[in-house]
Amino acid sequence: MTDSAPTELDAFRAETRAWLEQNYPRSLDAPMAEDDAPWGGRRAKWSNPDAKLWLDRMAAKGWTAPTWPTAYGGGGLSAEQNRVLQQELIRLKARPALMSFGLWMLGPVLLEYATEEQKQKFLPPIVRGEIRWCQGYSEPGAGSDLAGLQTRCEDQGDHYLVNGQKVWTSYADQADWIFCLVRTDTSKKHEGISFLLFDMTTPGVEPRPIKLISGSSPFCETFFDNVKVPKDQLVGRLNGGWDIAKRLLQYERQNISASGFGGGAGPELEDVAKAFVGVSGGKIADPDLRARIAEHRMYAKAFALTVRRAEAESKAAKGPSAATSIIKYAAAKMNQDRSELMVEALGTQGLGWEGEGFDPDALKATRAWLRSKGNSIEGGTSEVNLNVVAKRVLGLLDHQ
Amino acid sequence: MTDSAPTELDAFRAETRAWLEQNYPRSLDAPMAEDDAPWGGRRAKWSNPDAKLWLDRMAAKGWTAPTWPTAYGGGGLSAEQNRVLQQELIRLKARPALMSFGLWMLGPVLLEYATEEQKQKFLPPIVRGEIRWCQGYSEPGAGSDLAGLQTRCEDQGDHYLVNGQKVWTSYADQADWIFCLVRTDTSKKHEGISFLLFDMTTPGVEPRPIKLISGSSPFCETFFDNVKVPKDQLVGRLNGGWDIAKRLLQYERQNISASGFGGGAGPELEDVAKAFVGVSGGKIADPDLRARIAEHRMYAKAFALTVRRAEAESKAAKGPSAATSIIKYAAAKMNQDRSELMVEALGTQGLGWEGEGFDPDALKATRAWLRSKGNSIEGGTSEVNLNVVAKRVLGLLDHQ
Amino acid sequence: MAVLTEEQVMLKDAAKGWVSERSPVSALRKLRDADVDVGFDRAAWAEMGQMGWAGVVVPETYGGSEFGYRSLGLVLEETGRTLTNSPLVSTALFAASVLTLGAGAAQKEAWLGRIAEAGAVIAPAIDEHAHHAPAATALAATRSGDGWTLTGKKPFVLDGMAADAFIVAARTSGKPGEEAGITLFLVPASAPGLSRTRLKTVDSRGAADVSFEGVAVGADTVIGQADQGFGLLDQALDRARAGLAAEMLGQASQAFEITLDYLKTRVQFGQVIGTFQSLQHRAAKMFTELEMTRSCVEAALDAIDSNGNDVRALCSLAKAKASETVHLVSNEMVQMHGGIGMTDAHDAGLYMKRARVSEALFGGASFHRDRYATLMGY
Amino acid sequence: MAVLTEEQVMLKDAAKGWVSERSPVSALRKLRDADVDVGFDRAAWAEMGQMGWAGVVVPETYGGSEFGYRSLGLVLEETGRTLTNSPLVSTALFAASVLTLGAGAAQKEAWLGRIAEAGAVIAPAIDEHAHHAPAATALAATRSGDGWTLTGKKPFVLDGMAADAFIVAARTSGKPGEEAGITLFLVPASAPGLSRTRLKTVDSRGAADVSFEGVAVGADTVIGQADQGFGLLDQALDRARAGLAAEMLGQASQAFEITLDYLKTRVQFGQVIGTFQSLQHRAAKMFTELEMTRSCVEAALDAIDSNGNDVRALCSLAKAKASETVHLVSNEMVQMHGGIGMTDAHDAGLYMKRARVSEALFGGASFHRDRYATLMGY
Questions:
Q1: Quick one: chain C helix, strand, coil %, rounded to 5?
Q2: Which among D221, D227, D127, D225 has a CA at the least distance from the CA of D175?
Q3: Cβ of C343: how many Cβ atoms within 10 Å?
Q4: Chain C partners within 8 Å of D278 (Cβ)
Q5: B385, B394, B398: which to substitute to probe chain D, counting the most D Cβ within 10 Å?
Q6: Do D202 and A351 count as a contact with CB atoms less than 8 A apart?
Q7: C129 touching A, CB under 8 A?
Q8: Chain B touching partners, 3 or more CB pairs below 8 A
């Protein structure tokens, strides 16, 4: 039932624990500010040099990418060993050594689809956090219908020429390279898409940050004006990018769902309600709001139990549980409901934008509420999620 | 702004009031039991002979069909005069003289589409309540998609021959005649439908009552096995029945919506909740249920105000207000919500079917709850209602 | 979220096979039309006993299999699918729990073996009002000599006509609404002064109004400590809630599957209606609710079996979620079937009627939302 | 449900024309980006005054048009459509109501004319907590000589920075939570001891925290009877609720129309997205809610104008329905626009932010559900 015998695993755990205790810099025990997120890359700023030290030590062991082959700089760990490593990292309350779209999204598909040369070239810098990647997928006219993308890529003999525009490119203004879906055949839809990698410093690339309804954001619009791309930076075959694109989306969704849109942070809903609405007989004084908070909290608990069950079942069945299909949809609904109730519970304290007169936690909650509206849009809209459940899981057919 | 000058109307009101006070039998002041509903027809039973007297008196003046031409037995009243008549009837709390699908649905379309001979033949017996009609529309395979109906009607030279099956034929087992949609051309859909009238005693016609989830019902399945119909009983032109069918549906819906599915009868929701859930500080003791009851009652009030507004606007604009389009949908939702809350408020008292141990009002509420589930199906499903609003009112297009 | 053991898989398969052969929905229909007063088929109940289903949570010492609540939940889910009427909930789930958790050796000896072989039906005579409120118990039990005299009424007692005995919550001190002062009694149906009136329920489950007019019982009928019965009652009720939630999950799952089949076959406007996007989205939302409910039900049953410290909250969660889901799905079942779903000849109405009865038993969604919030301290 | 008079049609058309020319949504954006502390455009407010909108409910004697609340509602609906910021709600609706209904002749003389010509802003300093609860008033007013001294805080006062005066609810006897013992004062902003701090709100409406530190006012600042202010306050609040509901109806209607246009133009999967049935049904449901809300708003305003006996219930109904509807529609506006709706460059976010502020002002749906139930006696 396991990849390695318990005794070997026990030994691995002991070694790992010892190494981590020796190598995790204690100065990182302080809470991580948002600015301290270790995204790496050429322009990385390390407000605490120990964060860089931690990255370098982990990268040297390949433990930023624990299960990738050692040949590409990874840790070469089995799934079981990786679980032990993650458990030990949690035990230590360690900060992540590296956060990276390269690790979470690009790397896994390169391992599957790239040439040996490409793997050698691109994977080790990801492991070491030297190159920071961004994702060139959505376009103004291609949101839910991603395959409708129009960014043109023309074969110019010795190079490709890219023209067009992407949108929702997270951290495009911070990233070093981009993995980018481009149209290489305008006569077909899905079969006319290719998967291209290029440097964001290439002339003609221009990212512009997007301001959201919740304020500044990591998102950018990214414009391509006659961007020349070497031909060996195509992954997979020409016009064969759609399969790679979809596979990558699976990794992205796993990532989003696991986080549950970070719902847990900040003060608890019921405590906010008690503080701002008042308490009567130990209960939130507004029974209508109390009932709706309980309903939400029960939904959230059911969601958490479903994530756990889906994981257990997927592991047991060595394939995804049907419950997995609903997680993104339910996570978005849950976080949005929570955010709405939070702003409602805060009353007028939930109606601030910035400045004096509002509690900083309340201002954060209001911004989070606005930001939560994107949960049912980004990474596949809820409408598309429901379509997928109806068709792939329930077997309902397309309208003719 | 009015059809007749106020003074004339005042005179009409005085005359009408006097006539009604003289002619309305006082024995009918007692509440009308369900069995006493004056449906008329050949098989009418008059448990109180005054009800028959009342019908005969009203019919003699044409006031069972007040606005129909006197040539066909109607009252020949203007819309204004009819409003006065109805007000006076309400003032007297008079029972209806006649309830009749002939009056409400068939008559109006005959006036518009039938030949002079047909009008002369069919309208006066409707006015006098001598012939009771039923409606042959839905079929097992043609519900929401009514135009998909398959009941075959073949031209046999001197007569038509009808074979097939209808369903949801209200009171088919009580009715004398049927107005029936039949397929006269199988190569077209809407343009292959005709509108036929025939006697329910014709050999080959067999109605079978349908039992509903709420118990016995007025609905029937009606089977046609080689039913011979004289050719002069076709209304409009051959294959031209769909327009007549749709027009008749408009009259039917007006009828359903105006009644709001009879939601108001029986004890009030909040009184039931107080009695069965208890009272605390003057409020329903379960605050969660109380909030949901208030929400429903506010919806119901908004609905009632909308019906009133739609009427006022339609009258002022001499055409239907946009608000009219949502009434059937909202009425169904309202009645279903009310029924669900009623059963919930009754607790275990709402879980009875019949017999001892349950309050008769509670049993009635439980049956009404089950029956209410049909509100969003009969007379056009809620899904079809929403389609219609989206397309005709909001101007959204069909999926291609 | 434990994966099923081999024994559990076998139990589930056996239940699935048995209900499809011996107890499809048509069996409920037959029972209803035959107007059977006990509300279930005694021969079928005997077979359940032979298969060991009545003793799944009964200790081995008393002839049970001691497989636990998750296992009993598997059986209930399958019997729920076909709306099978049986004393599983009243007897094998609730009464077996009360006795196992709180009875003395003699009481266990006398009754648990009979439960395990489906030889006795024991009904819960707990609530006294139209809404679930165990602390509101008012039925008076007063000391008389060595024993007690019980006076009061218990309406809508599940399996009340079939019961050989009742587990009766009675007030021995304090006031209605207080948890302290409640005592549980095990009262034989034959006790003088006990009478019952059959109720004809909307879903044809067996139920009765039970009346106690000076019913004299011995001291040996007290289960656990006098005045201290509420804790035991609440523990047993939680087990009943979780088990009933499993049954409701089965009801809702089957209702959904029948509806999904209909969406795939019913043609209107030249299309299978399941191709209409609004119906697709509603189906996907129902599926989401079903998956969430399954997680809650399994977690509650697992927590009982592993003696977790969050049993109470999880049982309220499971019962509330199952109530909401079966409510939604049973309504959608009728609506999506259209006219045919309104006819008595179709099964949709049976699922809806059963749904509302299940929702009300042992507390509905509103009761459990309130209880959950209170347990969580807000 | 009175059909509009010719004067009302003219007023509505004038408002429609003015907002589209002088106050489209871009005006709010400009105001926000310029970070204007009073929260509205003083030049635009002056124009409103010239057009007579500030005096619609002010008696003719004092320079108003006395057109009534239904008429003011027509203006508010149009200004609501483009999210126009102005003191219409604080001053022309609430303060004008308080003064007209309850002030003495001298007070009326002093202030109503200035209101009618948009020459003064008077802000409601009522609530003291994050949630609307007028009876909870605690700010202390104690007698000192002939006059009174006010001490306490009023957070989140609408148009608090722009206000020339405040209508202050103060506690002169009894305890917070009691309706008796509340007195209304009209306090000039210049009164020594009164200070205010600007609040930057999510929807860029003007608001301030207002502090009273021993503010001495004369006996002539009491509006109506001392200790008896709650009835007047509640009457004026109901007028504010109904008028605000009209503004919210405008917000929701416009948000819906913008969204409907987008559904008709945005192409995905080779289709205009408005052809997808699930979006069609959601659009039709929004339309239903909008129609129902309109009926409630018009009924509440008509009831005020005709002095109906169900004003309180209808105003709670209108505010609750408008809150639910603008909540739904503003959420759907963002969702149906997809990514573009999340950007600051698009107006969807502005409608959503305004929606939540409007929902909270003068009591949200939950407050008014409770009030409605209480008024109806359950």
A1: 55, 15, 25
A2: D227
A3: 20
A4: 277-278, 280-281
A5: B394
A6: yes
A7: no
A8: A, C, D
Given this model, what pLDDT does residue C125 score? 98
Of C202, C338, C366, nearest to B352 by CB-CB distance is C202
**The domain made up of D6-120 is a member of CATH 1.10.540.10:** yes
User: Is residue B1 very low, low, confident or very high in pLDDT (cuts 50, 70, 90)?
Assistant: very low
Q: Is pLDDT at A144 greater than 60 in this prediction?
A: yes
Task: Tell me the per-residue pLDDT of A311-328, one tens digit each, with 9 for 90 and over.
Answer: 899 888 887 888 889 999
Which of D275, D335, D357 is the best mutation test for A, with the most CBs of A within 10 A? D335
Write down the H helix ranges in chain A. Answer: 6-23, 49-60, 79-91, 101, 107-113, 116-127, 241-259, 269-277, 287-317, 327-346, 360-372, 382-388
What is the sign, positive or negative, of the torsion defined by CA atoms of D334, D335, D340, D342? positive
How near does any CA of chain B get to the CA of A281, in Å? 14
Q: Which of C272, C275, C279, C281 to mutate to test binding with chain D, by most D CBs within 10 Å of its CB?
A: C281
Asked if C63 and C117 count as a contact pair (C-beta separation under 8 A), the reply is yes
Mean pLDDT of B197-211: 98
CATH numbers and ranges of domains, chain B = 6-128 (1.10.540.10), 133-239 (2.40.110.10), 244-393 (1.20.140.10)
Fold of C123-227: Butyryl-CoA Dehydrogenase, subunit A; domain 2 (2.40.110)
ipTM over 0.85: yes
Flag whether pLDDT at B2 surpasses 50. no
Q: In whole angstroms, what separates CA A381 from the centre of its chain?
A: 15
Rounded-to-integer distance, Cα A56 and Cα A49, Å: 11
Q: How many CA atoms lie within 13 A of B233 on its CB side?
A: 22
| Residue C178 C-alpha, separation from nearest chain A C-alpha, in angstroms | 16
Distance CA C280, CA C366 (A): 29
A chain contacts of residue C296, beta-carbon cutoff 8 Å: 301-302, 305
Q: How far apart are CA C293 and CA C301, in angstroms?
A: 12
Supply the mean pLDDT for chain D: 97
Tens digit of each residue's pLDDT (9 = 90 or more) over C239-267: 999 999 999 999 999 999 999 999 999 99
CB pairs under 8 A between A and D: 127
Of D209, D278, D366, the CB nearest to A288: D366
Average pLDDT over residues A91-112: 95
| Closest-CA distance of chain A to residue B399, Å | 8
Specify the length of chain A in residues: 400
- Please state the domain extents for chain D: 6-120, 123-227, 231-375
- The residue of chain B with its CA nearest to that of A291 is B288
Segments of chain D with pLDDT less than 70: 1-2
Q: Which chains touch C (3 or more CB pairs under 8 A)?
A: A, B, D
Q: Which residue of B has its CA nearest to C127?
A: B348
- Name the CATH topology of D231-375: Butyryl-CoA Dehydrogenase, subunit A; domain 3 (1.20.140)
